[in-house]
Amino acid sequence: xxxxxxxxxxxxxxxxxxxxxxxxxxxxxxxxxxxxxxxxxxxxxxxxxxxxxxxxxxxxxxxxxxxxxxxxxxxxxxxxxxxxxxxxxxxxxxxxxxxxxxxxxxxxxxxxxxxxxxxxxxxxxxxxxxxxxxxxxxxxxxxxxxxxxxxxxxxxxxxxxxxxxxxxxxxxxxxxxxxxxxxxxxxxxxxxxxxxxxxxxxxxxxxxxxxxxxxxxxxxxxxxxxxxxxxxxxxxxxxxxxxxxxxxxxxxxxxxxxxxxxxxxxxxxxxxxxxxxxxxxxxxxxxxxxxxxxxxxxxxxxxxxxxxxxxxxxxxxxxxxxxxxxxxxxxxxx
Amino acid sequence: xxxxxxxxxxxxxxxxxxxxxxxxxxxxxxxxxxxxxxxxxxxxxxxxxxxxxxxxxxxxxxxxxxxxxxxxxxxxxxxxxxxxxxxxxxxxxxxxxxxxxxxxxxxxxxxxxxxxxxxxxxxxxxxxxxxxxxxxxxxxxxxxxxxxxxxxxxxxxxxxxxxxxxxxxxxxxxxxxxxxxxxxxxxxxxxxxxxxxxxxxxxxxxxxxxxxxxxxxxxxxxxxxxxxxxxxxxxxxxxxxxxxxxxxxxxxxxxxxxxxxxxxxxxxxxxxxxxxxxxxxxxxxxxxxxxxxxxxxxxxxxxxxxxxxxxxxxxxxxxxxxxxxxxxxxxxxxxxxxxxxxxxxxxxxxxxxxxxxxxxxxxxxxxxxxxxxxxxxxxxxxxxxxxxxxxxxxxxxxxxxxxxxxxxxxxxxxxxxxxxxxxxxxxxxxxxxxxxxxxxxxxxxxxxxxxxxxxxxxxxxxxxxxxxxxxxxxxxxxxxxxxxxxxxxxxxxxxxxxxxxxxxxxxxxxxxxxxxxxxxxxxxxxxxxxxxxxxxxxxxxxxxxxxxxxxxxxxxxxxxxxxxxxxxxxxxxxxxxxxxxxxxxxxxxxxxxxxxxxxxxxxxxxxxxxxxxxxxxxxxxxxxxxxxxxxxxxxxxxxxxxxxxxxxxxxxxxxxxxxxxxxxxxxxxxxxxxxxxxxxxxxxxxxxxxxxxxxxxxxxxxxxxxxxxxxxxxxxxxxxxxxxxxxxxxxxxxxxxxxxxxxxxxxxxxxxxxxxxxxxxxxxxxxxxxxxxxxxxxxxxxxxxxxxxxxxxxxxxxxxxxxxxxxxxxxxxxxxxxxxxxxxxxxxxxxxxxxxxxxxxxxxxxxxxxxxxxxxxxxxxxxxxxxxxxxxxxx
Lengths: 334, 875
Prior knowledge:
The structure holds two protein chains of two kinds.
Chain A: E1 8-10, H1 15-25, E2 29-32, H2 38-43, E3 51-54, E4 64-65, E5 73-76, H3 81-86, H4 88-93, H5 95-102, H6 107-112, H7 115-119, H8 132-137, H9 166-173, E6 176-181, E7 184-189, E8 209-215, E9 224-231, E10 242-251, E11 254-263, E12 270-271, H10 273-279, H11 286-294, H12 310-329
Parallel strand pairs in A: 1-3, 2-3
Antiparallel strand pairs in A: 4-5, 5-8, 6-7, 6-8, 9-10, 10-11, 11-12
Helix pairs in contact in A: 10-11, 11-12
Chain B: H1 11-14, H2 20-25, H3 47-52, E1 67-73, E2 79-85, H4 87-90, E3 95-100, E4 124-125, E5 131-137, H5 140-148, E6 151-156, H6 163-168, E7 183-191, H7 194-200, E8 203-211, E9 223-229, E10 233-238, H8 243-254, E11 261-265, H9 280-292, E12 296-299, H10 302-308, E13 315-323, E14 329-339, H11 347-356, E15 367-374, H12 390-407, H13 411-418, H14 437-448, H15 450-453, E16 461-471, E17 486-492, E18 498-502, H16 511-523, E19 530-534, H17 551-578, E20 585-588, E21 591-594, E22 601-603, H18 604-615, E23 619-624, E24 644-655, E25 662-674, H19 679-698, E26 704-706, E27 715-717, E28 736-742, H20 763-775, E29 778-779, E30 781-782, H21 786-797, E31 803-804, E32 818-820, H22 834-841, H23 850-859, H24 862-870
Helix pairs in contact in B: 8-9, 12-20, 16-17, 17-18, 19-20
């Protein structure tokens, strides 16, 4: 079988200690939460780490606070995906988030995987998520040890895909993320956590730890119509080849504000602003939705580095945007 | 051997030296109505161990002082090896040895005509993943690190990625023994006057189809453990479907006598044809154990299993069929190209199989078949469930659907009118047995409401029908010989226990349970009275292996033969003891008793004691050799079988016309099983075949990445992993309604036919036909990805031909055409122009005619025979 490389495992009991180790060990260190992303990556040697800092023994990181009436939802970074998916208040107040989390991988991986780990999920590419010998046979790629992006060889950048399912939904809901390092704590909009670069896909500093996520109470189902859809080959296990996250803040029958975010189609969760703009101030009529959704075609430029035909993925993006918008609007979905 | 209507098997012809007295003493076989075990669903004999985790697979074995082997594999698709530098690896503490090609320079391969593999590349690497060196270390981690430290220098050769490139690039040859350039095999054969057949046709249909490659995906990754023993002997445990052929390959490459090598096939966690070849890693493991004098183990990663491959050949087909107005066939020409990958494997047989079984389902009076297999720089293709036949079956059944639509007929009725007659000898000289195909079609048509619902469902919903047929064991062994293809020995202990020995290999299909059922049935015992010892070349008689759906039929006959011999001896002794005629004794319920007075009799235990006291140690051997095939032309060796199974399926699908995504909603499948030995196992095999067939129809494909030629010669498997090589999960698996059509075939043990492979065949074409019924577009290739359906729908909306599929077929010179008159043209099974063929091609007898084979066996010296057995290109 594929074997893990040797590393030293740190299991600090406090955040401060974890931050200190990360800071001291520099490039050699990596954080692990549930391990469902990092362990396979280490086995295939496309991520490397001599020092692994586990957050499993840090107390208080797996809490879920969702109870306050219309208050914010606070998710500890180590809350498992299963815990969030099944949390009653999350399901009632932020149903599309519970749904998005429930679409991640398979039940067993959701039992291990955490929300903090999912928002930091390494970008993926069929030229990259391969074992050492395979990557050697293509002379590697720029994301790991090589010089070229084989997806677009004349491009100067890496086109690996951000395929965390929670991320587009959290961006759509206007979530914020808390980061802790030896320098202290800061909170940023989760949209600002991501960068359009398959390699440096997170803006957080290497020694910063995602400790929690806050979803504002204003995105509660009482104010906001939401829906999430994930397109993938099979009904479970697979990473997405497109996801659509929709949040519509209503003022009576009119859309007061809207966010439509696409996942698994670029190196970051990408906002389909034209689609959102076409909805704001409008009633959620089928024709309005159809027109708005058709604008999603330009927001989606899938590359040939995931499952399924890239041209087709672009082609069906408006179809799924329309269906997801209809679901959010409470219209029948074909 | 006088069961009513039963054709005598070849067993007695092949083993004339049997004791005639024993044969005479044999009682009449059991009438079917008395069957107690056969036909009853029973728990599989290995089930308990499997579900409790106590089954010991190859990777579960370990021994003190065991070392671990890791292979260094090629990272380039085609190159001359300049150097292999293992010094850094050998310098690592704990690294024990490194073997390279020079240590094992003898070639091997499954077919005598394709001895083209080295355990470790000697001078050329032919695909990414080709093994180059083997590193042994005291731990698996260390072996892996050391393997990464081995430096290999390559002199790159041009990469050949496709059949078209192989045709255009005769040099450099991937193998010098190819028929022509990089075309491994060329063949052309005509059965009857095909042009006359087309002249009789009222309509002619021509189509081009493509069936992509895919792989077996057994859950268990290949593993081998070798234990050196005293006197230079070695035992090799391996996850293999063919321990006998592995035994031969080990003997050849290691250069030690077969008697010093013992091969044990451990229970396989799935095989599906992927473990039917002897593999380099198995030979390397044995060699390493002998070299180091300590146990050695190798367990492959999932990526390495993709490199072993031997999966479905990608096949491009051009099919031209002539029909009368009622749809009956007048003639067909079929041309196929196979992308064989880098080695021969079973490829010569696969090539023939892409044409051989076109004649066994529907009456086809004239038939021409031409094919090439190309060498390419990819892992070798070989036999996967259905071996070479699902591809042309897909084309045939889709084309029949088109014919039915064009002629305004219901596709079920079109087929029912031309189902072949039982016991026919076909245009290409295959002798058929029972055929319950019409009953299969009727069953699925009734179950699915096909007659009422086909063509009438709302848009987006559709029904598709297709059929198929498969061998019940290849008529010929892989190497030329007249020995039995399966043997069983029984030994009865004084407590009444029966030890059953057979070389058969359990790969999950339930062969152990079939073996036990047959013996228990004949001796009137319970399954728990038996102990099985299987798949062990030192202790069990040869069974050729779990391939070609041969085990139930061939092993079943051998087991019955052995058990009936034991029964005869016991009956003789008990009859004398009780003073009754033997013919009056019944073996049932663990007793031997008087049919007229059941109270009068002995318990099985007492019967055994009486017998051993009277006749000595109680043991017997049984064997089976298939009947000769009437075909005598070059190539007639591929296709014959003692009988054939038949299947029909209806699939209901739902198609999303906005995206092209389609899914099966329900499958109805009827299978002509002859007789079920164990209906529960039979249904399991049907469902497994449906699952695998749907996978091939929907998503499974061996895709490769060719990097931009200007920047790299790299050619890699696109996603050698369980995550990205897509196969169905439970989510995608629809409900399956299975119909077992029981019409006992005299050629099978208790009438049984195969079920492991046949039911896969109708699935891909049934899906394509259902998509047509749902949305009116044809996808003439598999897998049918959503983008293909959407593209065809777009064409439909634009008023263009509503089809997605291959448009072109390459220009190919298939070479000299062998002409074989059909039985109804007065043929004798031979080609009329064999001599001209030899002159035209300069090919004497690389794969030989059946006549040559028989001649060699009759007159050839042992030396000549041995040369044939080893293969002309060997060494």
